[in-house]
TrEMBL record:
Keywords: DNA-binding, Homeobox, Nucleus. Belongs to the TALE/IRO homeobox family. Residues 73-86 have a biased composition (Acidic residues). It comes from the Eukaryota. CDD domains: homeodomain (cd00086). This is Homeobox domain-containing protein. It is found in: Nucleus. It comes from Cirrhinus mrigala. Residues 54-97 are annotated as: Disordered. InterPro entries: HD (IPR001356), Homeobox_CS (IPR017970), Homeodomain-like_sf (IPR009057), KN_HD (IPR008422). One of its GO terms (cellular component) is nucleus. Residues 1-58 form the Homeobox domain. Signal peptide: none annotated. GO terms for molecular function: DNA binding.
């Protein structure tokens, strides 16, 4: 597994800065960003999920929560439930007890 470099993430951060009102890249934009950054589509999707989570945590959320279509839910559910530090699914309170 190769870690992202500052050069790689700067491209993703620049995209995120330009799209603060709607920080959800389309599939085509993700593909373009993956090619530019030499990351996989999964890595790009995970990076954006984690970046949105970080912004929300820092109360820098400037977009309204997105209602996903059923197609998008199937693709993104695995990504959105990953813990950024361990790469493991986040446990709900019920799962801990």
């Amino acid at each position: 597994r190769k870690n992202a470099t500052r050069e790689t993430t700067s491209t993703l951060k620049a995209w995120l800065q330009e799209h603060k009102k709607n920080p959800y890249p389309t599939k085509g934009e993700k593909i373009m960003l993956a090619i530019i950054t030499k990351m996989t589509l999964t890595q790009v999707s995970t990076w954006f999920a984690n970046a949105r989570r970080r912004l929300k945590k820092e109360n820098k959320m400037t977009w309204s929560p997105r209602n996903k279509t059923s197609d998008e839910k199937e693709c993104d559910d695995d990504q959105d439930d990953m813990d950024e530090s361990q790469g493991e699914p986040i446990k709900t309170e019920q799962e801990f007890n």
